[in-house]
Amino acid sequence: MNGLFSYYERDSFLHRRNPSLKLLCVLVFMLSVVMAFDPWTPLAFFVVGLVVQLFLGRVPLRGTARPLLFFFILGALGFIGSNALFYNPPPGEAVTVLWSSGVLRITAEGLRVGISLTMRIVAIVIFSILFVTTTDPTDFVLSLIQNAHFPFRLGYGILVAYRFLPLWRTELGIIRSAHRIRGVGERTTLRGRWNQLRRYAVPLLASAIRKSERVAIAMDSKAFGALPQRTYYRKQTVTWADWGMLVGALMVTSLILLTLARFGLLRGYGVIPAD
Amino acid sequence: MALIEVQGLSVRYPRASQQALHDLSFGVERGETLLILGPSGSGKSTIGLCLAGLIPNSVPAGMEGRIGMAGRDASEMTVGERSAAIAMVFQDPDAQFCMLTVEDEVAFGLENLAVPVEVMESRIMQALALVGLDDRRHERVDRLSGGQKQRLALACVLAREPSILFLDEPTSNLAPATRHSFFQLLRTLRRERPELTLIIIEHVLDDLIEIVDRILVLTPAGQLLTIGAPSEVFDLRDQELDQLGIWLPQVTALGRKLRLAGVPVERLPLTVEGAVGVFEPLLAHRSLVPGEGGKPRVPMVGPAFGKELSAISVRDLSFRYGSGPEVLTRVSLDVPTASFFALVGPNGSGKTTLASHFVEILRPPIGSVHVLGDDITQLTTAQITDRVGYVFQNPEHQFVEQRVEEELAYSLRLRRRPLDEIEATVDRFLDIFGLAPYRKLNPFSLSQGQKRRLSVATMLALGQSILVLDEPTFGQDRNTAKALMERLNALHRDGVTVFVITHDMQLVADYAQQVAVLVEGEIRFIGPTSMFFANQALLHEASLQSLPLHDLAREMGIAYADGTLPMSLRDWYPFFGVEAASLPEDVQPLGEEAT
Questions:
Q1: So what's the ipTM on this one?
Q2: Are B278 and B267 in contact (CB under 8 A)?
Q3: Which stretches of B450-512 are assigned E, i.e. beta strand?
Q4: Three-class SS of residue A34?
Q5: To which H or E segment does residue A71 belong?
Q6: Which residues of chain B does CATH 3.40.50.300 include?
Q7: Bridge partner residues of B10 (DSSP)
Q8: Rounded distance, CA B490 to CA A18, Å?
Q9: Residue range A165-174: average pLDDT?
Q10: Average pLDDT, chain B
Q11: Given its phi and psi angles, is residue B23 left (phi above 0), alpha (psi -120 to 50 degrees) or beta?
C-alpha cells in the first residue's frame, strides 16, 4: 500500500531480472543477516542493499526512507530499549553497566544485542523493499509458475486476490461513512469494537463472497484450467545475466562474511559463539 | 439446422424451492442476434450458464434437457471445446478480470485455450482495436473507467474468436452515454462479424432493439412465454410484457399507451425513425401551451433563490482528495426546500463527492455548506442526521442490525425516543414501504428492491425533511424502480426535499423539477428540467443522453409554445388529443414486484 510496498515502475538492471532468481538472491541475503548475531553483519548487508537499490534498481531513496525510518524507530524503541534495560546475561557472564538508577540499568551487552536486532530488521526490510519495488507482481507470479513450478491455479488465485485488495479498502471506507451517518459512533470499548468489527465485516464479506463467485465463474467461462496445457504470452526467461546476479550475490555475501570473520566481528552462524 | 438447439431445458439450484428454468425449448440460428427478456429471477442468466457449460460443471445445479451446438450434443463436448465456442461478458465490470493490465487480461483467455504465442500478439491487437482500446494496451485494468472495462471484457472474448457471444446485462453498470456507445460498438461488431451469433440480456432497449433479430421472453417461473421478431413480440404480447415489468423501448411504450387510450395506433413502433411514420397521421396538435391539458409542470420554487430558506445551500465549495487534482471547483448550488432536485453528470464528475458534503462524510470549509439555513460545520452529527437522510448507492453498506424492524428502530433507539413512539414509527414505515411481511428477516436476505426500500425507510425514520439518494434506481427492474420513485414522489408531495444523483434520464424527465449538471467538478447548468433537456449541447458535453421521446419530438416537430419539449409519456397524450387524466396509473402496488 501507499508506496511502501508497491512496484515502482522503471527500467533498471534489477527490474529486468528474473523474479524467481531475484527472490532467491534476496533470500540468500536475508538468511545471511538472520544467522548473524553481531551488529556488523546486518549493517554491512544494509549498506549493500542500499547501494544495490540506488544503483542497480534505480529506485530513489525518497520512497523508501520513510518505511526504513519507521522500522528503525520501532526497532530502536522496542529492541534497543528493552534489551539495554532488561538484558539478562547468561549465567557467569559479567556485564558492563553504563548507567543505572534504582532498578533500571543500561548494560553495554544489552545495548549491543538491541542494536544488532534492530539492524537485522532494517536490513531485512531493505531487501524486501528492494524486491517489491523492482518486481512487477504479475511477472513475479508468472515467473514462480513458469520457472519455479509453482501450481498455476494457486498463482492466478493470488493475482486475483491482489487485484481485489484496493477495491476492498475503498469499500471499507464507504461502509464506515455509511455507518457514521446511521449514527454509529466509532467505539472505544472492547465490546463496542467487537460489535463494530462485526458490523463492518458482514457487508464486506457479503460483497467479497459475491465478487469472488463472479470472478470464479468468469474465469471458468474463459476455460481457465480446462485444458491440460496452457501457453504463456509473457514468457519469463532465465538469462545469463540472471545467473550472473545470483553468482554476484553469493560472492558479495561470502566476501562480507569472510571479511567480518577475519576481523573477529562475526558472531552467530551456529559455530562462532555469540560471545 | 440451427446453431444452438435447446430442448426441454430445466434447471434447479440446490435448496431452491422452484426451478430456475422450466422445460425450455428454443433454437438460435448462426449469425442471429437474440435478446432475452424477463423479470429478475426468471432464469435469464441461467440460460447463459447452461449454454457455456458452466452449469453443471462450475455452478452446482441440477440440469435436465438437451443442448445441441452446431449439430453436436453439448454434453459430449469437452469444457475446452465448449468455452472456445461460446464466450461470455458479464454485468459487473470489476468481477470478470483476473490480471492487472489490459494486454495480460486479453492474453489470459487465449493462454487458457493454449493458443500459440506467435498468433496471440495479432489477435490481441485486433480485438483491442475493434473495441477502441488499442492505445490502452499497457494500462492497468483498475485505471479504466466502467465503460472501458466493459469494452475490455468484450475484447477479451472477441480475441478468442468464439462462434457465440453471450452478453449478460453488459451495460447495467454504465452511464447512459457510455451505454449508448457500447451498443454502437455492438452494431459495428454486427457489421464486421456477420457470422457471430449474439445472445444478449438487457433491460434498456432503446439503442439496442435495432440490431435484435428475435426476442425470447421468460415468465417469472422460468418458462418460455414467447419467442419471435421484436415487432411481433411487442405488438402482440405487450400486455403480458407490461405485467412482467419489462421495460419497453420508450416509443413502443408511447404507442402502447396511446392505443390503450383509444388512439388507433396501427403497429407499435420500435425505433424513433419508425415511430415518426406511425404517429405522424395520428397527431392532433403540433404545438401546445405547457400545462394545457397535460400534466401541469410544477413551477420552480421561484426567482427568490437565496432569499427563501434553501434546504441545502452550497457556496464556492472546492475539494480535492489529499494532494490529488481538484474534484470540485467553486461549486455553488441551492436546493430549494420541498423540491425534487436531480444532480447529473458523467461518471467521475464529482457528484457523490459533492453530496458527501451534505452529511459531513467530507467536511466542508466553514461557511460553504448550509443545511436549512445553518452552517453544517456548526451542527453536531446527530443534528445533521436529524435533518438529512443519505441513501448510499449500495444499500447493504448502511445496514447495522440483524432484523428489518431493528434496522428501522436503530436511529430512534440511539436517540432514546419513547418505546411506544419507536414501535409506532417502525410499524408505519414497514407499512409505507411494503416491508411488513419481512420485518423479522435479516436485511441481507432481502431482494435488491426491498433492500433499497429499507435503506430509504431507515433514512426517513427520524422524520428527516431532506433525503439525498445516490443512484436510487441502479440495477433494478422497471416495477421495482417505478415503485420506489413513486414512493419518493409521494414523500416529495408531502414536503420532503428529495435530492437524487442519477444517470437515469427518464427518471429526471418524469420526476425532477430542477436539474444541476456537474462536469469535471464544475456546475455547468442549474435550471428547470425542461430547459435542461432543451439544451442539446449541454447533454452532449455532460455525456448524457437525450431522451428517445425528445428525439421523436424533434423529428416530428412537436413542441410546447415556449419551445420546450414534452418529456414523460403523460406529456405526450394531449398532442394526440387524449386527456392525460383519463389514463390509469400503471404503478404496481409495493411489495409485489418479482424478487
A1: 0.80
A2: yes
A3: 466-470, 497-501
A4: helix
A5: helix A61-75
A6: 4-248, 311-545
A7: B64
A8: 65
A9: 85
A10: 86
A11: left
Nearest to A222 among B109, B385, B458 (CB): B109
Torsion region of B144: left, alpha or beta (phi above 0 gives left; psi -120 to 50 gives alpha)? beta
Contacts of A224 in chain B (CB under 8 A): 108, 112
Give the Å distances, CA to CA, from A137 to A30, B99, B158, B168, B408: 20, 10, 26, 31, 45
How many CB atoms within 10 Å of residue B233?
23
Q: Which among B98, B385, B394 has CB closest to A163?
A: B98
Q: Coil, helix or strand for B166?
A: strand
CATH topology of domain B311-545: Rossmann fold (3.40.50)
Q: Is A231 on the interface with B (CB under 8 A)?
A: yes
> SS3 letters for B342-367?
EEECCCCCCHHHHHHHHHCCCCCCCC
Helix, strand, coil in percent for chain B, rounding step 5: 40, 20, 40
Residues of A in contact with B141 (CB under 8 A): 163
Among A179, A180, A182, the strongest candidate for a mutation testing the B interface, having the largest count of B CBs within 10 A, is A182
Average pLDDT of the residues in B401-428: 90
Q: How confident is the model at residue B246 (pLDDT cuts 50, 70, 90)?
A: confident
Nearest to B112 among A163, A199, A226 (CB): A226
- The topology (CATH level 3) of B4-248 is Rossmann fold (3.40.50)
B96-136 pLDDT, tens digit per residue, is 888 889 999 999 999 999 999 999 999 999 999 989 898 99
Taking the model in full, what pTM does it have? 0.83
Residue A33 to chain B, least CA–CA distance (Å): 34
Residue of B nearest to A234 (CA): B104
| Closest C-alpha among A40, A117, A131, A45 to residue A76 | A117
